[in-house]
Design goal:
mainly alpha, Four Helix Bundle (Hemerythrin (Met), subunit A), 80% helix, 0% strand
């Protein structure tokens, strides 16, 4: 199997640390009783880590659909190439690095890593549309 479909399948593993961080901080913040409830009256976080974990997860979701669309377009269009692979790997690596930087509130480096992930999507786009 070419690396594109493998990386697309492995990309779902990105959700483990993102959802894990959000869940752990949620339980630490509110306790298992509230987490198991219907949460009809949401409470704002008291500590910054839960809010950061939730924003990081939301940020991943904002870019992940683009990654999936491009990965599928590359595969269906039989556009696998070193450029496509570099874009996929760049996106995935940057997203893995992004989470701890966001949780630790590292200001400028976090933004640079986010830009690198967007660069990865750009490489995938170029590989998908150029002959």
């Amino acid at each position: 199997m070419p690396p594109g479909p493998d990386l697309l399948a492995w990309s779902t593993a990105l959700f483990v640390p993102y959802l894990g961080a959000q869940s752990i901080f949620y339980l630490a913040e509110y306790g298992i009783g509230f987490a198991a409830s219907g949460r009809d009256r949401p409470r704002p976080p008291r500590r910054p880590y839960l809010a950061r974990a939730e924003r990081a997860l939301r940020n991943l979701l904002e870019t992940y659909a683009v990654f999936v669309a491009l990965a599928v377009a590359l595969e269906l269009g039989r556009r696998s190439s070193p450029l496509a692979l570099a874009g996929e790997q760049t996106y995935l690596a940057a997203r893995l690095i992004y989470l701890p930087l966001y949780l630790l509130a590292v200001p400028y480096l976090r933004s640079i890593v986010w830009l690198v992930s967007i660069l990865g999507l750009g490489l995938m786009f170029v590989a998908a549309v150029l002959p």
